[in-house]
Amino acid sequence: MADEILLVEDSAAQAAVYKAYLEAEGYLVRMAGSGEEGLEAASARPPSALLLDLELPGINGLEVLAQLRRQPGGFPVIVVTDHGSAENAAEAVRLGASDFVTKPFDRSRLKVTVGNAIRQHQLASMVDTLKEKFARDRFHRFIGGSAPMQAVYRIIESAAPSRATVFITGESGTGKELCAEAIHRQSPRREGPFVAVNCAALPRDLIESEIFGHVKGAFTGAVRQRDGAASLADGGTLFLDEICEMDLELQAKLLRFVQTGQFQRVGSGETIKVDARIVCATNRDPLEQVRQGRFREDLYYRLHVIPVHLPPLRDRGEDAVAIARLFLERFANEEGRSFSRFSTDTEQLLRDYPWPGNVRELENVIRNTVVLNDGEAVLPGMLPPAVTARRIAPATAAREAPAAVVAPPAAGTAASAPGATVVPGAERVVPLWEMEKRAIETAIERFEGNILRAAAALEISPSTIYRKRQAWEERAGDTKDV
Predict the structure, then answer these.
(1) Would you state the pLDDT for residue 412?
(2) Higher pLDDT pick, 132 / 456
(3) pLDDT score recorded for residue 124
(4) The pLDDT of residue 414 is above 50
(5) With 90 as the cut, is the pLDDT of residue 306 above it?
(6) Percentage of the chain with pLDDT > 90?
(7) What is the pTM of this model?
(8) What is the pLDDT of residues 342-351, one digit of tens each?
(9) How far apart are CA 464 and CA 455, in angstroms?
(10) Residue 444, pLDDT score
(11) Class at the top of the CATH hierarchy for domain 142-309
């Protein structure tokens, strides 16, 4: 079906010319002689594109554009402007026009402009549809719209309906339990229990009881029968976190459970059968653990049916800032602080920092910042020093450090004596806290002891200065005690 163009032009002669141009290119053309008629026609049946003259009686073209922008849906608008009215063309583009043509124009110019506008709009609509279908900023309790996380979300959606075991890998703090919960909530078992066991948090002699339960008298302290996680997860999902910490003897019992769904409580000969889906996780390389003899190969292949790898935060682009904003809002409400945003420089620091502790470290950093500071925006100086410090490799520190950071040997030392040879690398590297102390003290002196003005000049909060001065005093006290 041919694309339809709505032509809004009050001059009958010019409208006839434009109509002839468009129909010659195979378009269907509808006509409107005023802005009001154009709005009514566009609302009744949205066109493929709208060709709009800016000089109209009653409602002019700019007002038509402004009203169209407030309506749902959309289509490209090409405005027609007189020669020399560049301001009107710029304003039209600002209001949402796709392009403009300046009178007089010929058929070829109109053909190219209208064709490009329609194709670009169709492409943009296709991209928006794909984004809506495949991209999301949140997924269950996950926050983040980066490409690596989109891949994780799609794997979870595909794996969740299955009964197959899922093996989640990733560094500490990347959200492995969140992933397991998402698999459970996305699955047909969502109404059943989700039971999590951290194999690294329990003594080895208690893990079996924690997973499979025990009967009364099975061991010292077993004063009553206790159901384990496997029983509690019947009809739902059993999540075994840090599974590579499990000893080999218990791995053999877990293998039988994974294969048959059957187990025995500690101290009992009764076999119990349950229907629980197994999801496990580790922050280690499980195949390397197999090679080192710390993890059973047969159990690995039983569990490693659907692998899901969670990317570290440093590989997730803008996700760090998005997650930080969420934490900022939450902790500001909890602590009664005024924070509502991060400054531009602070957001850049959050992007640049490698986050070795991943989301868990980010959460701690934002909570620390909110508790110790206040203000409308989080400034760079409010973040902990670990985030703001520039990391320099030891082998290149002397070569890469700014001149102000490297202090010459003190006067009177052998290295400072006339004719003495200075050994490369013998210069003292000034610690970051000392550089920071000099900058703050210089600012305070510059403003004659006024902390508020010094903090404003340094773009940090006054509380940061007070906190750092207290730390310096404590450091000095510790030095005296040595």
Answers:
(1) 44
(2) 456
(3) 79
(4) no
(5) yes
(6) 49
(7) 0.57
(8) 999 999 999 9
(9) 8
(10) 83
(11) alpha beta
Measured distance CA(374)–CA(360) in Å, rounded: 22
Which one is the CATH code of 4-131: 1.10.1790.10, 3.60.150.10, 3.30.450.20, 3.40.50.2300? 3.40.50.2300
Lowest mean pLDDT among 146-155, 324-333, 397-406: 397-406
Residue 187 has a pLDDT of 96
Check: CATH 1.10.8.60 for 319-393+427-481? Answer: yes
Q: Is the pLDDT of residue 68 over 90?
A: no
Domain ranges of the chain: 4-131, 142-309, 319-393+427-481
What SS3 string covers the chain?
CCCEEEEECCCHHHHHHHHHHHHHCCCEEEEECCHHHHHHHHHHCCCCEEEEECCCCCCCHHHHHHHHHCCCCCCCEEEEECCCCHHHHHHHHHCCCCEEEECCCCHHHHHHHHHHHHHHHHHHHHHHHHHHHHCCCEECCEECCCHHHHHHHHHHHHHCCCCCCEEEECCCCCCHHHHHHHHHHHCCCCCCCEEEEECCCCCHHHHHHHHHCECCCCCCCCCCCECCHHHHCCCCEEEEECHHHCCHHHHHHHHHHHHHCEEECECCCCEEECCCEEEEEECCCHHHHHHCCCCCHHHHHHHCCEEEECCCHHHCCCHHHHHHHHHHHHHHHHHCCCCCEECHHHHHHHHHCCCCCHHHHHHHHHHHHHHHCCCCEECHHHCCHHHHCCCCCHHHHHHHCCHHHEECCCCCCHHHCCCCCCCCCCCEECCHHHHHHHHHHHHHHHCCCCHHHHHHHHCCCHHHHHHHHHHHHHHHHHHHHC
pLDDT score, position 436 = 82
pLDDT band at 240 (very low <50, low <70, confident <90, very high): very high
